[in-house]
Amino acid sequence: MGKKSKRDRGAGGSAGGGKGGGSGNTKPNGRNKKDVREVMVLVNELLQKASSPGVPPGKELEEHMSIREVVERIRKKQEGWTPEPVPRDQCFPVFLKWLEDHGVKTDAVTIEQFEVGGFGLKAVKDIKAEELFITIPRKLMLTTETARESSLGPLIKKDRILQVMANVSLALHVLCEKYTSSSFWAPYINIFPGTYTTPLYFEEGEMLHLQGSLNFSDVLNQYKSIARQYAYFYKLFQTQPEATGLPLKECFTFDEYRWAVSTVMTRQNQVPTSDGRHLITALIPMWDMCNHSNGEFSTEFNLGSDSAECLAMREFPADSQVYIFYGMRSNAEFLIHNGFVYPENLHDRVNIKLGVSKNDSLFAMKAEVLSRAGIHASTTFQVHCGKDPIPPELLVFLRVFTMVEGDLRDLLTSQHQSAYLSCLGRLDCMVTQEQETKAWAFLETRLSLLIRSYKTSIKDVEAELQASDLTYHTRAALQLKLAEMQILSSAAEYAKNQREKIPQLIDEKILQLAADVALTVKVTDELDGEFVEEVLELSEDEEDLGTEQQGDTHAEVTEGSKDANGSVSQAEESKTPEKDSGLESSSERESVDGDAIKMNGATVEANGEVSISEKELKN
Ligand SMILES: C[S@@+](CC[C@H](N)C(=O)[O-])C[C@H]1O[C@@H](n2cnc3c(N)ncnc32)[C@H](O)[C@@H]1O
């Protein structure tokens, strides 16, 4: 890829603001010295409030309201600081011409507005499964590399946070380019939505509809993180000499920051660097107009032609919407990072926290057994939608949690310990009948308690959703709550059924003692509590019992096919120690999440999240 300074940078020009993210090259109105001074005072207050360590459970909403109150005062002061947007659809023709001028063929698809998902791509002819329908060269992409090569480069070089949080630097890059009228990417940036539906845009009342949701604190944490980042960068732009020449000094309002962050969160992906050695975060024009549906990854990065190639994940008849698959995300992840809930989501799941009490007289033994299985004594487990809601690691936990002292001792001294532990993650194994009954009863009770904590019922939420005057955000909040409750409720029903059919399964020899089965199992690998096993003698009914492994939901980079395009190596960002922090610890971490892409045959669920500890942010 040529250096940015050598690019054709005259193609876009300013489309003049734009609901789709206009370039904003007009002088901001209403920005006077007094307002600027007052905003700085408020920003200091915001930084202090949003940097406080986690609050005790039950106090998160109070904290959120206090942060939101300062944010709203800042937003009020900043009214009129940035230009009004122009409707994005007016900018599509210039965008399509820009693509064409840079060699992108768009004869298979066109941009169209749809009832669900807003704008998307429509097939203009029959597209066959696996047919290549769009190719986007790297030179058109906005990436963390182009950020470093841009006017933002010196600041990225200097600021530790921008170095570590690649996608925050991408968000600021987008913002800088938006306010640079001669930006090469202006035709692209002008078609971005003017606002988003991520929870960062939820009004106070809309946010409250998420109360009771298992993900409420994650949503509040996301808001807190973005508020903290905003305050941090606002101060930085006012004080750092490296920021002097940047348009950010004048246009960096809270609204513009949440817009830039949401742009990146909802559209980002990962592509390999030109040498194929690292993955970097990128915004891919046109390809990112595809909405999501269930399916599989179908985009590859061709290092030979240095382009992202999007293949149809299934057949798309002419005039139908062309979808891609964003990855195996839960609806909570979709809402928090993409601003929508997908009721048909085949990969939906909820996180539940379970732990062995330190007051349990068998705590030490249980914690030891769990640790040998790669499971912490207090951890978060996933409960899935569909017919196999309980993943193996949760099953192991439930069984160890309900084991009696003798069984724990037997397991700890067993010669076949690994195999035994592996069997505990299988539905066709049990420790004893009594323990098995206790394990499922415990899960059923625990799930029922969680359902009760919503203080509403599935029926009531369904009824609320019938109202025709709900805002998009309120509907999404209710849809998320409903999806969570449905997963918990059907998993509770599943646990009840499992418990009730224990005697019958034992009679039919479908359910056997784990200690016996362990003698017939050779353990070949053991990964973070996920058991990969080679079963020498499998029960015929194993599939019916749902012992299949659940799909991995974390970022995964596998070796690409060794073709002419080369292979893809471990993600640059994902090598950072913060990478695996995830949202469960988001009170301490920053992250901006993205979608998924398959490159050179390498499947990448490109969460693209870059996180940083709160301490570092404060420094
Ligand atoms: C990569 S963009 C796709 C293009 C986008 N619709 C637009 O108008 O620019 C991702 C965004 O599209 C919307 N979206 C994608 N798939 C969706 C779906 N299945 N249901 C609802 N919204 C969807 C969400 O707002 C999401 O953040």
Automatic annotation (TrEMBL):
Taxonomy of the source species: Eukaryota, Metazoa, Chordata, Cephalochordata, Leptocardii
Family statement drawn from the similarity comment of this UniProt entry: Belongs to the class V-like SAM-binding methyltransferase superfamily. SETD3 actin-histidine methyltransferase family.
A molecular function GO annotation: protein-lysine N-methyltransferase activity
One BP annotation, GO: methylation
SET domain ranges (all copies): 107-327
Record protein name field: protein-histidine N-methyltransferase
Matching InterPro entries: Rubisco_LSMT_subst-bd, Rubisco_LSMT_subst-bd_sf, SET_dom, SET_dom_sf, SETD3, SETD3_SET, SETD3_SETD6_MTase
Organism: Branchiostoma belcheri (Amphioxus)
Enzyme class (EC, first level): transferase
